[in-house]
Structure formats: C-alpha cells, structure tokens
Prior knowledge:
Elements: H1 3-12, H2 19-24, E1 27-30, H3 36-45, E2 52-55, H4 57-63, H5 68-73, E3 77-84, H6 88-99, E4 105-109, H7 114-123, E5 132-136, H8 144-149, H9 156-169, E6 174-176, H10 182-189, E7 194-197, H11 221-226, E8 231-234, H12 236-239, H13 244-258
Parallel strand pairs: 1-2, 1-8, 2-3, 3-4, 4-5, 5-6, 6-7, 7-8
Amino acid sequence: MPISERLNSSVSATPQGHKLDAARQRLIVALDVPSAAASDELVKSLEGTCHWFKVGLELFTAAGPAVIEPLVARGYSVFLDLKFHDIPNTVAGAVRSAATLGVRMINVHAAGGPAMLAAAKSALDSVANPPELLAVTVLTSIDAAALKAGGIDHSPAHQVELLAKMCLEAGIRGFVCSPQEVAALRSLAGPSGILVVPGIRPAGANPSGPNIDDQKRIATPADAIRNGASFLVVGRPITQAPNPAQAAQAILEEMAEALPS
C-alpha cells in the first residue's frame, strides 16, 4: 500500500485513545551518527518507541548500504536521505540502486531541474513496491540571506513554491520542506502529497539553545502536524537527549495532540 494511503487509513480509523500509534507512524528519527555501532545502539534505545529511521550522508558514508539491511530485517521503515543531485542519467541509476535496498523513502534535490526530476521518477516506474520519491526544496538551514548569496533574490517561501511546481509537473508529489512552507505545499500537493518536515524542535525548546544549531526555519511538532505535515524528521532533540526514548515519547505526545480524532 502506498505511503499516502497507509497514512490516511491509520488516521481516519484511529480512535482518540490510539492517536499515539498514529503519531508513531509519522515520526522519523534521524540516525545522524558516525558508525554502524552507534546506529545500532541508538535504534536499540528506541525499540518499541519509534518505527521510522532516517539514514543520511554521515552514516551512509561511514557504513555503506549494509547499515540498512538490519533495520529493514527488524521491520523498521527507512528513509534514505542522500539528496541525489547530478546529471539525469546518474541520478536515475542512483535511484534504481537505492530502490533495491528495501527503503521506503528516497530523495533528490528539486534544484536538479526538470530533466533530472523526470529521470528520477521514471527510474522507479518498473520497480515493484517502489519507495516514495521525495524532492528536497530549500534546506532548513537556508534563509533569505543565504539564498541571496547564491544569486536568488527572493524569499525561501517563494523559492520553495517555484521548485514544488516544477516537481509536480514532473509527476513528483512528495517533498521535503521546512515547517514554514508546509501549509503552502499542502495546498499545492493536495491531500495525497507526502510532506516530510525536518527542522522540528519540541515545545519549550530554547530557540537559541544547542538543539537548534544550524536550523533556521523551525516549528514545534504540533504546529507542523496541524499545518499539514505527513512526517516529521527529528534528530538532535532525540539523539542527543540523555534519554532518547523519553525524548521521543514526549515528541510523540505533542504530535498526537495535534492529530484529528
């Protein structure tokens, strides 16, 4: 069953007392750690609390594709966050290779352009039970000043909208975006669009504290869910907490409060 259908069915059929279970299907913990051993330790600490994990550049570079196999074998869902951005033929090959790993989501940079996006989408056409293909719009570490330094003289929100429209024309309806653009993207992508939202900081977090770091466009879990996020990606507020399971549970409770009954 496609991710969008599973999300919709889990929410619509979930009674009030089971909203935590629905939230658990929407929280992705970022395994941004330097080794397979560190990843395994973190996953074990979250067993029974979290269902989704993100494997990004740091862990994938250190441990390679082999780090994904035990996660999939144990029944976890994996978001492979490598943000492919290259010529169309190279990206198509990378997408096909990623699809063989058993992951449930992969992503490309929307800025790669129409031909690259179309090639990535086409690469999955012949794959049985393919992963969801997401397009990264504007990173949460980017603000207007950073865009201007790169020659883009308008707001992050406007740039996100331009990139999203290009992706939709290529047939891609899944996006990675900051919490500040999720409501606008929900309007563009419609109810079936998959919106994966990083830059999440729990309610009460110090806006200039160590768990904010390089994130600039952020929101609380509840606000992101209310604005239309399908999934939330959370790293440091969980992985650097003294008790990761306890921190994850608190975020799940925030998410659950914002989910419809």
